[in-house]
Amino acid sequence: MKKNNSPKMYRTLLLFSGSFLPLVSLAQEEAAKPTTSYFSNALFNTLLSIIVILGIMAVALASALKNIINSDMYVEKLKKAKDEKNNNTPKITAMVILFSMISLLAFSQEKVAAAKAANDRIGGLDQFTFYGMLVAIALELIAIGAMFSIFKSILGANETAAKSAAEVKPKTKTIFDKINDTVEIGQEETIMLDHDYDGIKELDNNLPPWWKYGFYLTILIAVVYLVNYHITRTSPLQKDEYTNSVKKAEAEIAEYMKNSANNVDESTVKMITEASALSAGKDAFIATCAACHGRGGEGGVGPNLTDEYWIHGGSVKDIFKTIKYGWPDKGMKSWKDDFSPIQIAQITSYIRTLKGTNPPNPKEKQGELYTEQEMPADSSAVKSDTTKVIASELSK
Fold it and tell me: Residue 326 in 3-state DSSP?
């Protein structure tokens, strides 16, 4: 016959609900003041929704818990637990709820006094309403947690009974047991040694198979390593591997430097002195630039390139920029689509060698005097002589 525990359940819920009476009373007192409606406040609606949802969950859990407790399966179990605990559970529950009511009342009065003194609002709500709703949520969570704990204890007892029944059956070895070669506790006597150390006995367990085969594998790897690196030398040792990597890196650097020559621009271009590069610059100059500047750079339609006067600057970077982008408004086209950056650098370097060559029929001076700033004053004569020698060799 089922025992009806509904009155006790209802008394517990009634005591729990009574803990909210101070909150309701103070809320009514605050609501009597002329303020805007709380239902237009998003924070109030959010907290209220949480309180309602948690309340519904608490009621549903309480109803389910009541049905479980009243079932025949747990009547005897609960009766035994009640006898063992001397019926202290209702008293403890009542004490917890009583302390909750006292704490809530003190907390509410304190917050109301603080709110009246400071008149601070949180999210549009007065402090009493805000903290009161938080306390309500906290109490609901405590109640739900308590009921979940009861569910867990009931289900845990059931699982323990099922486990005890399952232990009677012979245990099937799992993969973990097999790879570790474990022995059941009930069969440890079969591997127990005769040694006895102050009542402590020793078991003669086998090494786990995974450990033994892993050790055998390391021996095999050591043999393969020895043959591969020291006998047949099919793979390089660390020293040889380092040497090969250095050689490979040097080859990659050389290839990069070769390819990066075409990455030169007006900000990185430098004077080229190699005879082969200057010869290539001369051929390109005669083929394209001589029509306007003359074969010897004496000038024609374009300005004289052998004197010290320049319209757009006479440095290597200035000449490179002039050839690359041109000056269309003065009849000088852009050659960046006709020549690669390294070819423009070669033409630029060749033009620089024409300075001071004094070809026949030079055109009059144009632009401003350009003074070389890249070399010391005491080496200008050497530079001039060297330039003349290079230019004379190229003109042959």
Answer: coil
Which amino acid belongs to residue 148?
F
Domain of residue 321, residue span = 266-395
> Rounded to 10 degrees, what is the CA torsion of 82, 86, 92, 95?
130
d(CA 389, CA 357): 9
**Count of domains in the chain?**
3
Same domain, residue pair 121 and 201? no
- Collapsing DSSP states into helix, strand and coil, what is residue 125? strand
Q: What is the pTM of this model?
A: 0.34
Pure H helices in 20-88: 21-31, 42-69, 72-84
Q: Is residue 356 part of a domain?
A: yes
Q: Do 73 and 185 fall into the same domain?
A: no
Helix axes 89-118, 21-31, angle to 10 degrees: 20
pLDDT tens, 119-177?
A: 567 777 777 788 888 888 888 888 888 887 777 777 665 566 555 555 545 567 778 77
**Widest Cα–Cα separation across the chain:** 133
The kind and range of the H/E element at 93 are helix 89-118
Within a domain: 326: yes
Assess whether 132 and 15 both reside in one domain. yes
Given a contact cutoff of 8 angstroms between Cβ atoms, the answer to whether 107 and 131 are in contact is yes
pLDDT tens, 368-393? 888 876 544 444 443 444 455 455 55
Residue 44 lies in a domain: yes
